[in-house]
From TrEMBL:
<dbReference type="InterPro" id="IPR006696">
    <property type="entry name" value="DUF423"/>
</dbReference>
<dbReference type="GO" id="GO:0016020">
    <property type="term" value="C:membrane"/>
</dbReference>
<feature type="transmembrane region" description="Helical">
    <location>
        <begin position="12"/>
        <end position="34"/>
    </location>
</feature>
<feature type="transmembrane region" description="Helical">
    <location>
        <begin position="46"/>
        <end position="65"/>
    </location>
</feature>
<feature type="transmembrane region" description="Helical">
    <location>
        <begin position="71"/>
        <end position="93"/>
    </location>
</feature>
<dbReference type="Pfam" id="PF04241">
    <property type="entry name" value="DUF423"/>
</dbReference>
<protein>
    <submittedName>
        <fullName>SPOSA6832_02230-mRNA-1:cds</fullName>
    </submittedName>
</protein>
<keyword id="KW-0472">Membrane</keyword>
<keyword id="KW-0812">Transmembrane</keyword>
<keyword id="KW-1133">Transmembrane helix</keyword>
Length: 103
């Protein structure tokens, strides 16, 4: 029995949300935030690509009868949200995050 049982529906919904969020954030970064980001625009694009790729992975996992019910789904969701979210936050709130060791 998995520690945190996931379902195919959860994987499908999370995959759709992550993929669409990645596409929207990529477009937002390329157009609206381009002047503000400057040379850091490639970092924003990388975070958007990670969200898209992990979303597509969740969509694929959701179609598998065994893997969609394992711990992989919540780990991918959590990891992608924390990783891409921290990159977006660091780029948007650069001044407030200046004292962080990983800035």
């Amino acid at each position: 029995m998995p520690f945190f049982p996931a379902s195919s529906a959860l994987a499908w919904k999370a995959g759709a949300i992550l993929t669409s969020t990645g596409i929207m954030s990529g477009a937002f970064g390329a157009h609206a935030l381009a002047p503000r980001l400057g040379e850091k625009a490639s970092t924003w694009t990388m975070a958007s690509h990670y969200a898209i790729m992990n979303g597509v992975a969740l969509l694929a996992i959701s179609q598998h009868p065994v893997y969609s019910k394992r711990l992989a789904v919540p780990l991918i969701i959590t990891g992608t949200t924390l990783f891409t979210g921290s990159i977006f936050a660091l780029l948007l709130y650069r001044e407030k995050c200046a004292s962080l060791p990983f800035n």
